[in-house]
Amino acid sequence: MLRGKEILLGVTGGIAAYKSVYLCRELTVRGANVHVVMTKNAMNFVTPLTFQTISGNPVTHRMFELFRGPEIGHVALADRAHALVVAPATANILGKVANGLADDFLSTMIMATRVPVLFAPAMNVVMWESAAVQDNVRRLKERGFAFVGPAEGELACGVKGKGKMADPLQIVEALEGVLTPDDLAGETVLVTAGPTLEPMDPVRFISNHSSGKMGYALARAAVRRGARVILISGPTSLPPPLNAEVIRVTTAREMREAVLTQAGRASVIVMAAAVCDWRPVAMASQKIKKRSGAPPSLELEPNPDILKELGRNKRPDQILVGFAAETHDMEKGARVKLAEKRLDAIVANDVTAPGSGFHVDTNEVVIFTASGERIGVPRMSKDRVADRILGLVAKLRRGSQKPSWEPEAERPEFWEEG
Ligand code: CTP
Q: What is the pLDDT, as a whole number, of residue 410?
């Protein structure tokens, strides 16, 4: 998403400036061309040489240094960029921008740009909570400036509270959001992710290889596109996506309960979770001991098919997307699930193909829609696959007044089991 993008990174004078070096590196690694603009005070914390080395571009810190021919430095730089991120953003820079002051290169450039501007504030908790800063932040938000953080935690001044600069990876995520069109604004997207885990005793369970990476990528992509996102996640070790409501579950039955509770407010549901089809009939209350006799035989019973239930009770304007994890006859399996579960689209992947499926960061899928489209998505990062899927969802959502099958005449209460 950041590949080939011209990003301006404004660094102001706070101790969090050292974390901006890491941010600069993360942006560069993702293929962005980063131009760093430092304030005079920022240079008390980090040197321009550090940013120059990491970004590979000269660092700007003096107001009148970038005159090249007829170009005026701050205007030329501001015109070329796709986005501007200020990290850390001190109370001072927020105050200057909110009040129309432009007395150095950075504040002048912010005033001279039409590109999206993202602030990552960092300051002492008392300063952050002060009426002046809060007032400035409110005014900036009203004018369309984007914010990420600050986070809560132990601050450099030794106090605990809100004021820590957001983690650089979260800033990257927020920046990607700023650069993405908000074509899912106003939508509530419910995503499920990860495996379910079905216990047989307090220490053992059956499950599957799902890592949750595809579902989490979908949740992040939906946030980027401006949706309100509810992520219902089975056990994973992944960090929660920024700005998504995360509900953690363990078993298929818990996932069903959570999904059915939330589904009524979702306009889009994407079931990326690898739900276990069966669970042990009984769960021993104590650990089954090796010495207690012959190996136990595991009797299984079926779990509810959550997606099928959603399909049966779907509102005509709701978009329902499933996944088909296949190891053979992928296309046939996916088409059967698309029809049986009454989906708008299904994302099929061969989980045994190299660079596809569980644990890896890439995927290669084919999307089938209820209206007969077949969209091949070659191997790419799960983030990019997620974007393709949500691009399609946005398109389906725009045309969702026309359901692709006849709604049942007598629709039961939305979440009736059956
Ligand atoms: N799914 C579900 N509840 C289940 C099983 C699957 O909601 N108990 C959903 C998955 O989240 C996925 C879709 O149904 O979106 C297809 O899941 P998959 O495991 O590929 O297929 P199954 O329907 O379980 O059929 P099979 O295992 O026989 O391929």
A: 36
Give CA–CA dist 276/252, Å, rounded: 6
Can you tell me the distance from the alpha carbon of 371 to that of 217, in angstroms, rounded to the nearest whole number? 25
Provide the percentage of residues in the chain whose pLDDT is more than 70. Answer: 92
Structure tokens at 145: 């400036």
Domain assignment of residue 124, yes or no: yes
Q: Which residues contact 361 (CB under 8 A, 6 or more apart)?
A: 213, 381, 382
Which tens digits make up the pLDDT trace of 323-365? 999 999 999 999 999 999 999 999 999 988 888 878 899 999 9
Whether 49 is in a domain gets the answer yes
Domain-embedded: residue 332: yes
Residue of 126, 157, 159, 298 with catalytic role: 157
Protein residue with least CA distance to atom 6, ligand 1: 275
State the pLDDT confidence band at 235, using cuts at 50, 70 and 90: very high
* CB-ligand 1 contact for 337 (6 Å cutoff): yes
Q: Are residues 268 and 391 in the same domain?
A: yes
- For ligand 1, whether the C-beta of 221 sits within 6 Å is no
| Residue 342 within a domain | yes
Residue 317's domain comprises: 188-280+300-397
Pocket test for ligand 1, best of 256, 262, 275 (most atoms within 8 A of CB): 275
CA distance 50 to 29: 16
Q: What's the pLDDT tens digit per position in 11-44? A: 999 999 999 999 999 999 999 999 999 999 999 9
Active-site annotation holds for 24: no
